[in-house]
């Protein structure tokens, strides 16, 4: 697990976007795992800017989103399909037929979960998966107690997650309590994982992820098992780590080594 600690959320978004840009420049037909929420928005804005500047193309890209609210159709303003269209897909040279989000309005959600796993496998697996993290350590909608080898499935949201997401819904608007989410096992299958976290509210979850025991009580701790997981944090999100200066030193040494290897 690589820990990158940066000054603020602007630097976090720039660092994360650069990882995705390099991936697409290396492999134009990459399979991307994408996430919703407030954290990735700045990263997406930078990907859009890079695309418009001709630095990178999404024409051959396939994407799979982590999750979706169960009970919302894609055209619903609070659905994650709608979010992705508004925040990213509508502004890229991507073929929307190659962008996949779990179907929140599926007649048979269980079967839809199985089909989603099959689509990921048919695409050759996910090359790079973007993650955020919840205050309770959830990744995707894998809430505490989620199995560490779980696959795409229907999941009940915790009270904490429902409360955190309530700000996106009007007071009289229906807010789903169920979701379809990639499982932790599905996430761990990605060749590379990039998790972004900003703000003091995420500090406890980051500490448990990095320095806590591998446990279903903190789903993100499963990233300790991944061969190529990068956590990109601002100083506030990293504030509860036992030795931030140590992690910063290690990252500096990594950058020196990469620069030397690139010569």
Automatic annotation (TrEMBL):
Allosterically activated by N-acetylglucosamine 6-phosphate (GlcNAc6P). Pathway: Amino-sugar metabolism; N-acetylneuraminate degradation; D-fructose 6-phosphate from N-acetylneuraminate: step 5/5. GO terms for cellular component: cytoplasm. The active site is at residues 67, 136, 138, 143. InterPro entries: Glc/Gal-6P_isomerase, Glucosamine6P_isomerase, Glucosamine6P_isomerase_CS, NagB/RpiA_transferase-like. Keywords: Allosteric enzyme, Carbohydrate metabolism, Hydrolase. Residues 12-228 form the Glucosamine/galactosamine-6-phosphate isomerase domain. The keyword Chloroplast does not apply. One of its GO terms (molecular function) is glucosamine-6-phosphate deaminase activity. The keyword Hydrolase applies. It is an enzyme of class 3 (hydrolase). One of its GO terms (biological process) is N-acetylglucosamine catabolic process. The record marks 146, 153, 155-156 as: Part of the allosteric site. Its EC number is 3.5.99.6. It catalyses: alpha-D-glucosamine 6-phosphate + H2O = beta-D-fructose 6-phosphate + NH4(+). Belongs to the glucosamine/galactosamine-6-phosphate isomerase family. NagB subfamily. Catalyzes the reversible isomerization-deamination of glucosamine 6-phosphate (GlcN6P) to form fructose 6-phosphate (Fru6P) and ammonium ion. This is Glucosamine-6-phosphate deaminase. The lineage of its organism: Bacteria, Pseudomonadati, Pseudomonadota, Gammaproteobacteria, Alteromonadales. The gene is nagB.
């Amino acid at each position: 697990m690589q820990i990158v600690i940066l000054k603020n959320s602007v630097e976090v978004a720039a660092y994360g976007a650069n990882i995705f840009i390099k991936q697409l420049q290396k492999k134009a037909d990459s399979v991307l795992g994408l996430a919703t929420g407030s954290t990735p928005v700045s990263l997406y804005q930078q990907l859009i800017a890079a695309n418009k500047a001709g630095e990178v193309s999404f024409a051959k890209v396939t994407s799979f989103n982590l999750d979706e609210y169960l009970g919302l159709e894609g055209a619903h303003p609070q659905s994650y399909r709608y979010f992705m269209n508004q925040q990213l897909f509508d502004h890229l040279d991507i073929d929307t037929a190659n962008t996949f989000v779990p179907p929140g309005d599926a007649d048979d959600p269980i079967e839809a979960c199985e089909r989603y796993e099959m689509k990921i496998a048919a695409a050759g697996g996910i090359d790079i998966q973007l993650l955020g993290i919840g205050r309770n350590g959830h990744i995707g909608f894998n809430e505490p107690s989620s199995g560490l080898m779980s696959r795409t499935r229907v999941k009940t949201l915790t009270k904490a997650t429902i409360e955190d997401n309530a700000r996106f819904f009007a007071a009289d608007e229906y807010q789903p309590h169920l979701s379809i989410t990639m499982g932790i096992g599905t996430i761990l299958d990605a060749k590379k994982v990039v998790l972004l976290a900003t703000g003091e509210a995420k500090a406890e979850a980051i500490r448990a992820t990095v320095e806590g025991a591998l446990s279903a009580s903190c789903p993100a701790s499963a990233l300790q098992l991944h061969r190529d997981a990068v956590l990109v944090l601002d100083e506030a999100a990293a504030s509860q780590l036992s030795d931030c200066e140590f992690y910063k030193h290690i990252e500096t040494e990594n950058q020196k080594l990469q620069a030397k290897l690139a010569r």
